[in-house]
Design a protein that fits this description.
The protein has about 350 residues and is α+β, with helices and mostly antiparallel strands. The protein has 14 helices and 14 strands. The protein has a four-stranded antiparallel sheet with strand order 1-2-3-4. Keywords: DNA replication, DNA-binding, DNA-directed RNA polymerase, Magnesium, Metal-binding, Nucleotidyltransferase, Primosome, Transcription, Transferase, Zinc, Zinc-finger.
Length: about 350
């Protein structure tokens, strides 16, 4: 979507950056000079008690002297709230009392389609959660209880179950008026190469919802109940909502925890993150079935200047750690470092906590 010349400048002139930032921070009024638009607060991007985060209304910029986060109001909305650029512009326009420029028909159609996909994902999540409480979900409930997850933990992480039915979710969505094509587009179903009827992508699996920084359900991960399944863990495919190399599991809650002083702890899988969070390490995240990508690393650094990497203690985990070091070294600098917590041989964080 193209914006008229001068539109962004008009937004910045009308909306002081302190109004946007002030929703996420508590100003140090003794150090701030409100009359001059000079503001100080503890940084919302990393845990601290001192006010090292500076906001200048006259210049329209913020800068943290601790983690070196910097930018304007639009950058802040994108980094702190997980918004897309155009969503951030829309928020600023609303604050300024300016109408948003009209989208082209193609852009409007894309936006509407993404909204439809989010609605479909929410319907699927509700169905998965209901299935965990059925007779078919008894084995999954027993497994989760054996891993130390009580009812409160299941609710907190919205864990569900996909019964071993070829079209269980598809039938439910169809009864709700969701066409098969939309279920496939959302990554919930797959279409055979021979053109036959679509089938549920997740079958016989414990389901973990994956949410983006804005809290929208954008995909799912599934752990197989069958020990002989070809893939122990299965993630949804790339879709208009989900890019697994640019997202992290539990990002939103972890970001909130880090802003309150918790460390950002990076584990390998869903159960590691859940175990860490239940043990008090609420700033836990995990990549989504892939080795940590450069985009994920930069995302971690936007949350914390020194993430703690806790990969599994087996040979594969050690190789992954070395690959991460090789990738991170050229990118590291002030406010961008890594720390490693080495797991005992063959153990992961969940094993260690238990």
């Amino acid at each position: 979507m193209s914006l008229p010349p001068g539109f962004l400048d008009e937004l910045r002139n009308r909306v002081p950056i302190s109004r946007i930032v002030g929703r996420k921070v508590t100003w140090d009024l003794r150090r701030s000079n409100q009359a001059k638009g000079d503001w100080w607060a503890p940084c919302p991007f990393h845990g601290e008690k001192t006010a090292s985060f500076h906001v200048d209304d006259q210049k329209g910029f913020y800068y943290c002297f601790g983690c070196h986060a910097k930018g304007d109001a639009l950058t802040f909305l994108r980094e702190a709230e997980g918004m897309s650029f155009m969503d951030a512009v829309a928020v600023m326009a609303s604050e300024a009392g300016l109408p948003m420029p009209e989208r082209s028909p193609r852009e409007q159609a894309q936006t509407d389609r993404r909204s439809q996909l989010v609605e479909v994902m929410d319907r699927a999540l509700r169905w998965f959660r209901l299935q965990l409480q059925t007779g078919a979900g008894a084995g999954a409930r027993d497994y989760l209880a054996g891993r130390g997850l009580d009812g409160a933990a299941l609710d907190r992480f919205e864990i569900g179950f996909a019964p071993d039915l070829r079209q269980g979710l598809l039938r439910h969505l169809a009864e709700s008026g969701v066409p098969e094509k939309l279920a496939v587009e959302a990554g919930l179903a797959a279409k055979p190469d021979d053109g036959g009827a679509a089938y549920d992508r997740f079958r016989g699996r414990i389901i973990f919802p994956i949410r983006d920084a804005r809290g929208r359900c954008i995909s799912f991960g599934g752990r197989a109940m069958d020990p002989n399944a070809r893939a122990k863990y299965l993630n949804g495919p790339e879709t208009a909502l989900f890019d697994k190399g640019r997202n992290l599991y539990n990002l939103g809650p972890a970001r909130a925890a880090v802003s309150k002083g918790q460390p950002l702890v990076v584990a390998e899988g869903y159960m590691d993150v859940i175990a860490l969070a239940l043990a008090g390490f609420e700033g836990a995240v995990a990549p989504l079935g892939t080795a940590i990508t450069e985009d994920q690393l930069r995302l971690m650094w936007r949350v914390s200047p020194e993430p703690i990497i806790t990969l599994d203690g087996d040979a594969a985990g050690q190789r992954a750690a070395m690959r991460l070091i090789d990738m991170a070294l050229p990118l590291a600098g002030p406010g961008q470092a890594l720390r490693f917590a080495l797991m005992p041989g063959g153990q992961d964080p969940d094993d260690l906590i238990r």
